C-alpha cells in the first residue's frame, strides 16, 4: 500500500500521523450542524436572500425547456408568428432572470462564505493562542496549523455551498421529475428507468474519486511536510552535504504525489463519457418510444423535444448531490476537529474569584510542590524552597533534573499537581494570570524572536513603552554597543526567528525585553552555547543590571553566574538535594562538586569558555 511505500522512503513519523487522521464522517450529524448554523446566524439576511435567489434560479432554469415545448407545440405548430414572438420574449426574460439570480446567489454565498471563514479563523486563532502549554505539548504544530487553515476552509465551503446549493440540486432534480411526469406520465416512467443507472454510476465514481482525492491530499501533506522540513533545515543539509539524498527522498514522495494526481485525473476523465452513454441511452429510449407516441398522436413534438432536453439536465444535480454529500462528510469531521479545539479550555485559567496580585515585593515560596507532565511520572517531588525578595537563586542539576519545570510553574505555564506556590504570600492560583505574568519575566535559553527589527522585538514585551524607555533598556543591557556595528543598528531586521543574529545578540535582545517589562521576578535560562569572552562579559554585566532589585531564578550553566548567586539550589531527579553558596557546596563535596568538576553537567562537557573559567576558579 502507498502508506507503506512512504515509510520506505524514510519519511518522518509526523507525516504518517497526518495520514492517519480521519477525513470522512457521517454526512448528517445534526448536533454538529446545529452548532455550525450558529456561525451563520449573523448572516441570516444574506443567506435567506441567497436561498430565495437560488430558488428563482432553479425554477427559471427548469422553465426553459418547457418554454421551448410551448413554442413548438403552440405557435410553431399553429403557424402563429405573434405567439412565437411573445414566447421568444418570455424565453429571453426568463433566461435573463436566471442569469441575474445566478449572479446574486453566487455572490451572496461567496460573501457569506468569506465572512464565516473570517469569523472562524479569527475565533480559532484567538482561542488557540490562549491555550495552555499542555495543549501545545500534546498537539503538533502541523496539526494545529491544519486545523486553523484547512478545516476552517472546508467548513466555510459546506456552510455556504453545502446548504443552499444542496437544496437547489434536490429541487432541480425533483422539478425535472415532476415536469416530465406532467408532460407525459408513461414516457416519464420509462425515462425514470435510467435513473438508477445514473445514480449507480455516480455513486461508484464518487467513491473512487473520494478515495483518489484522499490519496492526493495525503500525498500533498507529506510532500509539504518534507518540503517544509527541508527548507527549514537547509543549513544542516548543506553542511552535511545531503542535498543529493534529500532530493532522492523528495523525488520518491513527489512521484507518489504525481501518481495520485494522475489517478485522480483518470477517474474524473471517466465520468463524463460514462454519463454521456447513459444519457444517449435515455435519449434513444425517448426517441423510440416517444417518437412512436408522437406518430400515434399521443404526444406532441414539443414535449418530445423537451423530454430530451430535460434528460440532459438530469445528470448535473445527481453529480452535484454526490459531490456535496462527500463535502458534508468531510465537513462534519472538520467541524468536529474545530469544535474539539474550541472546546478545549485552557488548563490554566483564572479562578472565578481570582484577585489582582498587588505590585509584588518578589518573595517566592514553594511548599511541598509536586508536578508531573505524564501521570505516574513525577518530575518534581516535594519541592520546598523560600526565596527572599531580591535574592538570586541559581538552579543547577543534571539534565532532566526538573530545573526548567520548576521555573515554568512560577508564571503558571503549568499548575502544580500538589502543594502550592506563593508570591508575597498569595497562592498564585488565586490571583489573575495577567497580574501574575506582568510581574514575572522569562528569558529563555533560545529567545524566540519574531520577524521584524530588533527594536520591534524589544518593544513586543510592552507595546505602550515609549522610545525613551526602549532606549534606556537597550543601553542598560549594553545592546547599543553590540548593534552599533550593524548597518541599520536597532532597526536591523532580525530575519526569521532571529537567524541573522548571534546567540549573544539574541540573548541581549531578550534581556532588554525583560528589562522593559520591569518585572519583580525574573527567570532566566542561561544560553548553553559557547560565547566569546567579550560577549560573555557583556552578558554577565547586563545580567547584573537586569537582576538588581529583582528576585531572580537562573538555570545556570556558567561559573560566573553561580558565583554571583546568593544561593545555589541543586536539583536531582525532581528533588532539591543541596542548597548553599558556591564555596559551601564545593566544600561539602556532594553532587554540586561533581557537577562542577564536569562543568555543571547540565550540558555536554562545555568547550573552552566554561573550562577556562573553571581553571580560574580553582
Ligand atoms: P535540562 O537542563 O536538560 O533542560 P531540566 O533539569 O531543565 O533539564 P526539565 O526540562 O524540567 O529538566 O525536565 C524534567 C523532566 O520532565 C524530564 O524527564 C523531561 O523529559 C520531562 N519533560 C519536560 N518537559 C516535558 C513536557 N512538556 N512533557 C512531558 N515531559 C516533559
Oligomer: single chain
Main beta sheet strand tally, sense and closure: 6 strands, mixed
Q: Give the termini distance in whole angstroms.
A: 64 Å
H/I helix tally: 23
- Report mean pLDDT, rounded to a whole number: 83
The coarse overall form would be: elongated
Low-confidence stretches: 1-20, 601-618
Query: What compounds sit in this structure?
Result: adenosine-5'-triphosphate
Report strand %.
Answer: 5-15%
Strand line-up in the sheet with most strands? 6-7-8-3-9-10
> Using DSSP, what is the number of strands?
10
- The level of helicity is 55-70%
Q: Give the structural class.
A: alpha/beta
Radius of gyration: 35 Å
Write a structural description.
By secondary structure, the chain is α/β, with parallel strands linked by helices. 64% of the residues lie in helices and 9% in strands. It contains 23 helices and ten strands. The protein has helices spanning 2-8, 13-19, 30-40, 44-76, 81-128, 133-138, 141-183, 185-192, 194-232, 234-239, 243-295, 301-343, 403-408, 433-437, 454-459, 467-476, 479-484, 503-517, 533-547, 559-564, 582-588, 591-597, 608-617; strands at 364-372, 378-387, 392-396, 418-423, 426-427, 440-443, 521-525, 551-555, 567-572, 575-580. The strands form two sheets. It has a six-stranded mixed β-sheet with strand order 6-7-8-3-9-10. Strands 2-1-4-5 form a four-stranded antiparallel β-sheet, with no helix packed on it. A hairpin with a 2-residue loop joins strand 9 (567-572) and strand 10. The longest helix is centred in the middle third of the chain and has 53 residues, at 243-295. It is elongated. The protein starts with a helix and ends with a helix. Adenosine-5'-triphosphate binds at residues 137, 373-374, 379, 397, 399-405, 602.
